[in-house]
Amino acid sequence: MLEVYALSGGYLELEVAMMVPDRPAGSRWTVPVPAFLVVHRAGRLLFDTGLHCATIADPVGRLGEDRARRMPVRSRAGDDVVSQLALLGLGPDDVTHVANSHFHFDHCGGNEFFPRSTFLVQRKELEAARDPAVLAGRRYVPSPVDFDHPLAYQPVNGEHDVFGDGTVVLIPTYGHTPGRQSLRVRAGTSVDLVLAADACYTRENMDRDILPTVLWDAPEMARSLVRLRDLRDRQGVTIVFGHDPAQWEKLPRAPEPFAAG
Ligand SMILES: [Zn+2]
Is this prediction's pTM over 0.85? Predict the structure, then answer.
């Protein structure tokens, strides 16, 4: 028995053209910042930790003036992973593993609340996020205030089977950032999905083969997108997109499981 829960990690308003570059400038939308809890008999894995809860009351203090202006926080009270876990009767210490897809601020904001969890992050991501040469280039802007805490980071090299039975597997989908990863969850005959996070922001990016403006390595990201689309179109895998307002609207959210098998 395995269950997957969709948790709200907040909401951000931003330019549509940041995600779908051929859309007209000036058009804005509010996108979800999803996180997911996978409940397995051997443990509980949180995939991404959303925005830090302090971004609601003090967005400028937490995100800085420029980012808070470009991407205003539209979360409501309770749109943070710790509050969302509480909907399931769980606290941070019930989470055995956290996997960050990558270290952008909206994917690791809640990391500090999980001091007892094992963090599974691609080695390439861990190294890039602390590499002065990468940081100087400004093409990848990780968020040290969010990830750089004394947490139990365990580097992962490529594909990683979290519980050893093939049901919960981290898959490298690099490109958006140097060491970005997705999570594939398979259980029984009813569950086969990939939590793509920022390997693909929206369905439109996948259907129209469009990369966003925010990326580290375009050819690498294009290869990751093709790989995910093949999983969807050839193997019938459900892709959960990174910030897709239309898909999020339809997804059953905690405390209801959105997948179980
Ligand atoms: Zn990102």
Answer: yes
